[in-house]
């Protein structure tokens, strides 16, 4: 759709291609009444392109307040990474070559906030930028192409917020946004001052009022199977990213964090997360903060021990240990069975039902069936044989398989021409899921994006 | 199941690093992964869950789709043999005799094709230290189905070896080949040993001296090319009417004769989504349109043969369903598939009708378009790139 037309009307953009992976263990619409974790951690590796040893402001034993800077990346010293809660720095965990893996905070029972000062309504764009940079909220935004921390020197062409999630076991954004309605609107107003273009909301056909009533933004409605909720898909259909464009994206909860920061002068990164998966005794929603230890969510609440814990969804999330932490951008914690058991003639006679786009399984006759899944690879890595699979799950005007191949043979012109600027891992995650040859699509794409970014 | 698991577990250490049979690891791996989908959990850097489909299941589905052609081919080889002898003239007569005779002719070809092909694949996998790919499961069945029933087994062996080594492994194995492997085998024999691959004498198994007087052994396509509709109607001992062509009770390559058996295979491929309907439909459309054009212009040596007969004579249906649709050698883009299929249809029919040297054109048309498929895709992809570029200039 041409750019202008999409701006003018609010008709539904119907996406046909894609696939909804229907899994058991969706979140019940209740808030789990669990105690807050005592440990919180920030992981530098959550940020793409961050150097392995960021410069620390704090050391073990220091007391910090919520919103107090913990570290920054030396190439971009303006961007501060701040504590999500107040407490004592109990560990700076180091990995290979002294890389900083995590900064762990033992939380106070009551959060004390670092005073950021209120942001005046008349603040200039430059003042807003500086305010967000020092308070820690800046890193909640990501810049496309590449999905990196926004460059403070850049004025984004547009800002996009997707107001729904179609990935497997995805949270209901209505639940996530409860109590954050005012802050969300305040955040949107602030974001509007950051871009030279507009703030765009991508809405589902029937969305909660917090989104449909939002003001000062352009709303676009999308319908269709996953990845219809991906912000990359929205950008592609509203105003595709061209070479040289910068578009910022963020999630609605983070808009609310920014809104509250500006209004009250505190950085309080509250996150409501969906706790989902068939290996949990009870699913639901849980209110906590960025970097929360997952221990209280998992201890005594797993059906068995043979599980994989994922911060995020089963397509794009990060595997964490049972005493791991919630990732910087995640609003979902998924627990599914670990699939490391061999299956006798499993390729011929599957011993249990499994989701598949392939019609060689009878499952396509029951599209609404919910599946119990495990993490088995269901096959081995092979060269490409099948064609058309990737195209059938990517509702964008691009050729994913050709794009992936152009990355494999490192043809930069071809990568650019085939639209690498318009996608990040989550947009092609379904390709990796459906791939008959079990190619690691997301990591290949990331290699390509990194190569392009360094080239730029 | 437990038995296999224990057995494999016992011998596995010999094949692993440091074991006595270490260099045969990938041969062992092929057998092990055939019996057990490995307990490999997905890489934590990618999607944590994966679709149930893999290449083994995909390839096996194609093999299943070819089984009706194989079974009918076995019966028909027997049927044609006894027709030539003047025995069991009715299609229903002597069923077991025909099956038995046909099986004795056909199964050795299948065994040689699989034996030679898989032997080479295993050998190369072990030598080059990579897993055995499943691609030959399909090629190994396709090769017998496109051979005349009288083909000597040693020819099957060298054709298979030629196709696997030069047609596929030289390019890097399954997924990397430019040319359809089974057609490479056929085209090799066609040019190296033409008298075993074409003419009137190769389609009926048995000793020609025992055949009844006046039995020709020519295929309907050969007859129609020389004598047109009148030739088809005046056959002795056999019936070459439309229903025989559709049923497939005619001489020809082992698996290509029956439109019904091929249609069952096509349904399996289309319902499972593994075969491309775009290629099948556009190739048949291209062939039919070209046949109509030839019939209308009258430069057609097929005197009076209606265009739709062309779809049931020779190997056009088999080629459309099983050969043109090979995803590795076909065009890969959606629009490209339509163009690729349609051009095969046109070229194949041109070769069939206009070129007296080649009685059947599909093999050559598909191999030609295999070579051009990347060009077609390039043009389609290039238009996408241009579209993106024009957006960038706005």
Salient structural properties:
heterodimer; A: 456 residues; alpha/beta; six-stranded mixed sheet; five-stranded mixed sheet; 12 helices; 21% helix; 19% strand; globular; disordered N terminus; B: 394 residues; mainly alpha
Question: Which class best fits the helix and strand makeup of chain A?
Answer: alpha/beta
> Termini of chain A, distance in Å?
28 Å
The average pLDDT of chain A is: 93
Identify the overall geometry of chain A: globular
Average the pLDDT over all residues of chain B and give the rounded result.
91
Q: In this structure, how is the largest beta sheet of chain A organized?
A: 6 strands, mixed
Textual characterization of the structure:
The complex is a heterodimer of chains A (456) and B (394). Chain A is an alpha/beta fold and 456 residues long. Chain A is built from twelve helices and 19 strands. In chain A, the strands form four sheets. In chain A, strands 1-12-11-10-13-9 form a six-stranded mixed sheet. A five-stranded mixed sheet of chain A has the order 15-14-18-16-17, with helices on one face. In chain A, helix 4 crosses helix 7. The radius of gyration of chain A is 22 Å and the shape is globular. The relative contact order of chain A is 0.15. The N terminus of chain A is likely disordered. With 394 residues, chain B is mainly alpha-helical. In chain B, 63% of the residues lie in helices and 1% in strands. Chain B is built from 15 helices and one strand. In chain B, helix 6 crosses helix 7. Chains A and B meet through strand 19, helix 11 and helix 12 of A and strand 1, helix 3 and helix 15 of B. Strand 19 of chain A pairs antiparallel with strand 1 of chain B.
